[in-house]
Design goal:
207 residues, alpha+beta, Multidrug-efflux Transporter Regulator, Chain: A, Domain 2, 2 domains, three-stranded antiparallel beta sheet, globular, DUF4004
């Protein structure tokens, strides 16, 4: 399933921003380079964006730019993982991740163990899908292994998590953003989550 796109002209009209603002934000890395997609149209080459990601990003920039400098915003919106750690017991107390996550996926870890941001992110993504009722516990094991095996390969570049099922068999994939994806017949996409968005949400809770 392909992600819906919005043209640059439609975006500027809908959000009421100028061409100069858009590219200033791009230079400040508030908008990932990968979201600027050049495509051929009947009028020539035109720039498009992943619609849901771009509209959410513009809203966030507009809401925060009065309180934060562009450099501060860039740090907040960066897909790079912050150098941040938190004890398991504090994650409990602050309800960052449900207790059921630790009972299932980190039962052997003592309360004093300190997790880095990346490990907390894995728990956060699993918790998000479990709480949405879209995934079972055993599938959570699969997801944790997928994140461990493949997320570090993106090295701070934006990526999406895709969760699919076919004939009751589930599977997970991580893919670069933007990316077009098409499935064979019978495959149902259960969820597609922006890991970049998850990182931003988690930063807001932790930092």
């Amino acid at each position: 399933m392909d992600r819906e796109l919005i043209s640059k002209k439609e975006l500027l009209d809908e959000k009421g921003i100028s061409y100069g603002q858009l590219y200033r934000w791009k230079r400040k890395q508030l908008i990932p380079e990968e979201w600027f997609i050049r495509k051929s149209t009947f009028t020539g080459q035109e720039t498009f964006f992943p619609k849901d990601l771009m509209l959410a990003r513009i809203d966030k920039i507009m809401n925060l730019k009065e309180d934060l400098s562009l450099d501060e915003l860039a740090g907040k919106l960066s897909p790079l993982l912050p150098d941040y750690e938190m004890r398991k017991s504090e994650l409990y107390e602050r309800n960052i991740v449900s207790k059921v996550i630790f009972q299932r996926f980190a039962e052997q870890d003592p309360d004093t163990i300190v997790y880095n941001f990346e490990r907390i992110l894995y728990f956060y993504v699993i918790d998000k899908l479990l709480q949405a009722g879209e995934m079972g516990m055993e599938e959570g094991d699969q997801l944790l292994q997928t994140m461990r095996d493949h997320f570090p390969k993106f090295e701070g570049k934006p990526c999406d998590l895709v969760f699919i099922r076919k004939m009751g068999v589930s599977s997970f994939a991580l893919l670069s953003v933007p990316a077009e994806i098409y499935y064979e017949s019978g495959v149902k996409q259960i969820a597609r989550i922006s890991i970049t968005e998850c990182i931003e949400q988690l930063k807001g809770k932790l930092v």
